[in-house]
TrEMBL record:
NCBIfam families documented for this protein: cobA_cysG_Cterm, cysG_Nterm, PRK06136.1
Residue ranges of every copy of the Tetrapyrrole methylase domain listed in the record: 184-395
One MF annotation (Gene Ontology) recorded for this entry: NAD binding
Family the UniProt entry places it in: Belongs to the precorrin methyltransferase family.
Catalytic activity: precorrin-2 + NAD(+) = sirohydrochlorin + NADH + 2 H(+)
UniProt-annotated catalytic positions: 215 (proton acceptor), 237 (proton donor)
Pfam families reported for this sequence: NAD_binding_7, Sirohm_synth_M, TP_methylase
The UniProt record lists the keyword Cell membrane: no
Name of this chain's protein: Uroporphyrinogen-III C-methyltransferase
Domain (Siroheme synthase central) ranges: 123-147
The EC number(s) this enzyme carries: 2.1.1.107
Pathway(s) of this molecule: Porphyrin-containing compound metabolism; siroheme biosynthesis; precorrin-2 from uroporphyrinogen III: step 1/1; Porphyrin-containing compound metabolism; siroheme biosynthesis; sirohydrochlorin from precorrin-2: step 1/1
Length: 450
């Protein structure tokens, strides 16, 4: 600690208005400093014995000569990018006579000021400095900060400048607008089971959410990998039992996004396949909230595969339809029944277990073949998965053995269920995951498993 204190520097990050800057040097080091000045729209002058072509390309005014003491007249800031002791000595002589600020590139102990790693959003500037200790550190921190900032920050900062110029300052309004800018809702498809069925994208996103709202089918394994600081709120909806209405859920998502939070809406399967994700996204977008949709593995296709049933297969099915067993208000929609007449076609029914009698009677009355193969997959890809196969004629009997959640499948491809492997719940390679596990750890593990 004593050694560190010896080199510790007391510094104050400030912004300089219209500085008069002289850049001494014309090589690659000078070029890097010139880029920073140009990006900030700062005027400066160059003196160098040789000027590289890259600097000439910028069309910056320069004089090609050996640096002399008089060259510093009319400048209050000097950047020495030469590494030349003679230049350093001349600058030290100038400092004895008048006040100037000097930056000797890559020599922190000889600097009166440091260049920061900058993020520029029009008139908003974000600077990261380590007092010259490590440019690499500041660049990495800067880039990490950038990932957290909204793209529209520059336009917003410019708007606020316009308001200040026109004396339209409203502090409370600006606070609300700024928080809204940072708020974002991620509508995340969590697949059909535990962490095994999360996408890498979903896993990464779960690690930095402030709050999540989750449905009743979200597996505890997924909730367990959320960081301890993430608040969890249950908003599950199942048939005949709603903890909150859809409007209430929408307004909750909006409320926390307006507070500048990163909000996760966790949905079983895929959010856009009978998941009402589109309704939630549209509501938020209409309220000027940034929304990102993260796809998930839908039970529409994962459940058949877990039961050894390929939705399509040459010679058995060259097309597939996904329908719902009930529509708004729990009513039965019979319009899809005609699909069961199609040859070489698979029909997959989600949320259809409670509508089995309607399905059966409408199908029989529509002239559907009683021998049409049918399967019911209960609790797909879980430790208590059950698969029941038969035909349309005994559909009702099969349904009495099944439990929700369940997926119904109609078509000749069901014959594969006796041939292809079914999902087996056993040792889960990802059970070691904890709230401390990073996405990089998961990626490494995935590569090993592959």
């Amino acid at each position: 600690m004593e050694k560190i204190n010896k080199y510790k520097i007391n510094s104050l990050p400030i912004l300089l208005r219209n500085p008069k800057i002289l850049l001494i040097g014309g090589g690659n080091v000078a070029f890097q400093k010139a880029k920073v000045l140009i990006e900030n729209e700062i005027e400066f002058f160059i003196i160098a014995e040789k000027v590289c072509e890259e600097l000439k390309y910028f069309n910056i005014p320069y004089k090609q000569k050996k640096f002399e003491k008089s060259d510093a007249d009319n400048f209050n800031i000097i950047i020495n990018a030469t590494g030349n002791d003679e230049v350093k000595n001349i600058i030290n002589e100038i400092k004895k006579e008048r006040f100037i600020l000097v930056n000797t590139v890559d020599v922190p102990e000889e600097c009166d000021f440091y260049f920061s790693s900058l993020l520029l959003y029009k008139n908003l500037k974000i600077a990261v400095s380590s007092d010259g200790a490590s440019p690499t550190l500041t660049q990495i921190v800067r880039d990490k900060i950038k990932q957290l900032l909204p793209d529209r920050l520059g336009e917003f900062a410019e708007k606020k400048l316009y308001e200040r110029i026109n004396s339209k300052i409203e502090i409370e309004k600006t606070k609300k607008e700024t928080l809204r800018l940072f708020g974002k809702v991620y509508i995340i498809g969590c697949g059909i089971g535990g962490v095994d069925f999360l996408t890498i994208k979903a896993f990464k996103t779960l690690q930095y959410l402030n709050i999540v709202f989750y449905d009743h089918l979200i597996d505890d394994e997924i909730l367990d990998i959320l960081p301890k600081k993430t608040k969890k709120i249950y908003v599950g909806k199942c048939k005949g039992k709603h903890s909150l209405s859809q409007d209430e859920i929408n307004n909750l998502l909006l409320e926390f996004a307006l507070k500048g939070m990163k909000v996760g809406r966790l949905k079983n399967g895929d959010p856009f396949i009978f998941g009402r994700g589109a309704e939630e996204a549209e509501f938020l977008i209409n309220n000027n909230i940034d929304v990102e949709i993260i796809p998930g593995i839908s039970s529409a296709f994962a459940a058949p595969l877990a039961a050894g049933i390929p939705p399509t297969s040459r010679g058995f099915a060259n097309s597939v339809s996904v329908v719902t067993g009930h529509i708004s208000g729990g009513a039965f929609d019979s319009s899809w029944i005609e699909l069961l007449k199609r040859k070489n076609h698979t029909t997959i029914v989600l949320m259809g277990l409670t509508q089995v009698e309607n399905i059966y009677h409408y199908a029989i009355n529509s002239g559907i073949d009683k021998n049409l193969p049918v399967a019911i997959v209960s609790n797909a890809a879980s430790s208590n998965q059950k698969v029941f196969t038969g035909n349309l004629e005994n559909l009702i009997a099969l349904s009495k053995e099944a439990t929700s959640p369940a997926v119904l499948i109609f078509g000749e491809v069901i014959k594969y269920s006796n041939i292809l492997p079914h999902y087996e719940a056993g040792f889960n390679e990802l059970n070691y995951l904890s709230t401390e596990t990073s996405s990089n750890d998961l990626l490494k593990k995935e590569r090993v498993l592959l």
